[in-house]
Design goal:
The protein is built from 13 helices and eight strands. The relative contact order is 0.14. Strand 1, helix 1 and strand 2 form a beta-alpha-beta unit. By secondary structure, the protein is of the alpha/beta class. The protein has an eight-stranded parallel beta barrel, surrounded by six helices.
């Protein structure tokens, strides 16, 4: 299986009582596949992985695998603070039948690069499913160095890395450190850098904005591979207005509210991570209205 394209870190729809809305989850899966996305990633930041129970995660994955029916790869975020818990959740996701494991680096307690290598090596030995490393230093407190990514890329079932550092130099370092392995995919976790990641030799992006406008985000990748750089750049730059609203609150909160403004009953993020200032909400409403007028999808 080739890791490539635009992979949606799908939001987790909620009812008003904050329970998971499985019917709407299936609806969003259909909507995103229809929009052309190349994969669905469950339990990223946009999926509120940080606040879902283990039982909820397993049920969501069971629902997802059944609903997707092999049409696109299913990625599951199974990273936990500890190695033992990460292995257990990864095995559970593997048993459900997901296609790829995305494993965030351990967080809260400080961790060294050597400890990162030991952690991921131990997890990789316990599963057969391909693993994508997930670097998001703003949330974990540690940046996975390019040399660390290069070392881990020597392990057969570690097949990619998502870089959400927002540091293009860091992403370039990942691409350079893994260039000897042709099947290793570097994916941008920052939506603003997807096209530049592709130009530099990366394979695509895990794009939160594709929850809102999947066809436009897919257009970045599809136009790039066709050599239509002008249109690829247009699609890339077009999301700037939506991303400008992120300054008012958590990006995943903004994304979920944006999907709700489009008319989908996805609910709010779980408290306390569910607020957006009145100024931010007005800005978001204006962006959505402007996009609607331009027929953005």
């Amino acid at each position: 299986m080739e890791l490539k394209g635009i992979i949606t870190p799908i939001i987790t729809p909620m009812h008003d009582d904050e329970s998971v809305n499985y019917d709407e989850l299936k609806n969003q899966i259909e909507r995103l596949i229809k929009g052309g996305v190349h994969g669905l990633f469950f339990f990223g930041t946009n999926g509120e992985a940080y606040i879902l129970s283990r039982e909820e995660k397993i049920k969501i994955l069971e629902t997802a695998v059944e609903a997707v029916k092999g049409r696109v790869p299913v990625y599951a975020g199974t990273g936990c603070v500890g190695t033992k818990d990460t292995i257990e959740l990864s095995k559970a996701a593997e048993a459900v039948g997901v296609d790829v494991l995305s494993i965030i680096s351990p967080y809260f307690a400080a961790i060294s690069q050597d400890e990162l290598i030991t952690h991921y090596t131990a997890v990789a030995k316990q599963v057969k499913t391909p693993i994508v490393l997930y670097n998001i230093p703003a949330r974990t407190g540690v940046n996975m160095a390019p040399a660390t990514i290069g070392k881990l890329a020597e392990i057969d079932n570690i097949v990619g890395a998502k870089d959400s550092s927002g540091n293009f130099t860091n992403m370039l370092g990942y691409i350079e450190a893994t260039k000897k392995r042709k099947d290793f995919a570097v994916l941008s976790g920052n939506d603003a850098l997807i096209l530049w990641c592709l130009i530099a030799g990366g394979k695509g992006g895990i794009a939160g904005c594709s929850n809102v406008y999947p066809e436009n985000m897919v257009g970045i990748y599809e136009n790039f591979v066709k050599g239509n750089m002008e249109q690829a750049r247009f699609c890339q730059e077009r999301i700037g207005a939506l991303r400008s609203v992120f300054k008012y609150g958590n990006p995943n909160t903004v994304v979920k509210k944006a999907v709700k403004l489009l008319g989908y009953p996805v609910g709010e993020c779980r408290a306390p991570f569910n607020s957006l200032s009145a100024e931010g909400m007005e800005a978001l409403k204006k962006v959505i209205a402007d996009y609607k007028q331009s027929d953005m999808r």
